[in-house]
Here is the input.
Amino acid sequence: MPEAPAAAPPTRAAARERILEAAYRLFSRRGIRDVGIDEVVQSAGVAKATLYRHFPSKDELVVAFLQDRERRWTRDWVETEARRRGGNPEERLLAIFDAFDEWFGRADFEACSFINVLLEMGSAHPAGEASVRHLENIRLIVRRLAEEAALSDPESFARSWHILMKGAIVSAAEGDAQAAQRAKAMARALIERHR
Amino acid sequence: MPEAPAAAPPTRAAARERILEAAYRLFSRRGIRDVGIDEVVQSAGVAKATLYRHFPSKDELVVAFLQDRERRWTRDWVETEARRRGGNPEERLLAIFDAFDEWFGRADFEACSFINVLLEMGSAHPAGEASVRHLENIRLIVRRLAEEAALSDPESFARSWHILMKGAIVSAAEGDAQAAQRAKAMARALIERHR
DNA sequence: TATCAGAGACAGACTGGTCTGTCTAGGTTA
DNA sequence: TAACCTAGACAGACCAGTCTGTCTCTGATA
Here is the structure.
């Protein structure tokens, strides 16, 4: 170990990472308005001035959180799981709902932060605008998978598919444990129509 | 005109109605947390003490608003429009998305208050719990229409159908003007599967 | 090698503003 | 008179964002 990074001392320089980690933990589970800056500061073990040095306002911290959410949730989880689970393009599309099924069953299921923030803050708010962009990126992943599966009208397909994804998430948030299977069945029919 | 209702004098007794009207106007468009009691009071032209005489807390005002929303939106609009537009039970089901299509095009489209409140306040909050109950009632209407159409497994059908409704609403909130048509196409396929 | 300056982190008080809910005081109508 | 209303001050909590002052680590210089 050449540089003894040792994590033990309340290591400097990692402050930004700790803030983002705490913001992710709190915002993804409880929403934006319910979590105050003081709580983020305390949860991150960071001074308030340090947070404001790295993020000039709460809004900008929220935008950074949403970027983080895209990396962790959209790319490292949804897209990765879809590609890992499916043996061919159509299977990879359907595997999204298999992943959702496991996700919905988790005790700490927190729904979709992009939808939550969009509805919580409104589409005019900077964080709402960012959410819309991140939702577009999810649709882009679906669209690419549809193109790989050589389905017709991939843009329209992706928009319909996204309706199923969002509807399933809201239904799961409402308590329907089988929402993913229901959506998957409708998704199969959608593939048929675009084959 | 027997009783000169004339709206001009800040008529008494109608205070509760004015409060509910203002709460509906504000909460349905901007959400719960973004609207303070002072704003409701001012918009209703009512004294604060009067509001608190009729509704012991903001939470209870919100619950009353959600009840109002069920009357106005779920029953007087969704159910009424579905039954009015459709000539037979299956058409009445599909007509929900025709009504949605017009709704999504309105400039003051405000999405679904039950979904908004559920995601804004969380399912543990009293208003969130009430939202879940009101969403169940929407599903019940769909279920009854499915039974009238003699479709198989009406409960499961209604849950799947509701996924399409909620997904379409969120997509419309995100900006997809054709969300209702897309959902309607998938809804047709769902009817086929339950025939 | 010893010293010292600066960067950045820490703790937490403080400001200005908002929010919910209570209270006082006075008006209007039946 | 009784019941209900209006106006608006007020208490107490909370929140975003600023600021003061202290500490610790790094790295350059003497």
Residues 88 and 135 of chain A are 24 Å apart (CA to CA). Chain A touches chain B through 39 residues (CB under 8 Å). Chain A has a mean pLDDT of 91. The first helix of chain A runs from residue 15 to 30.
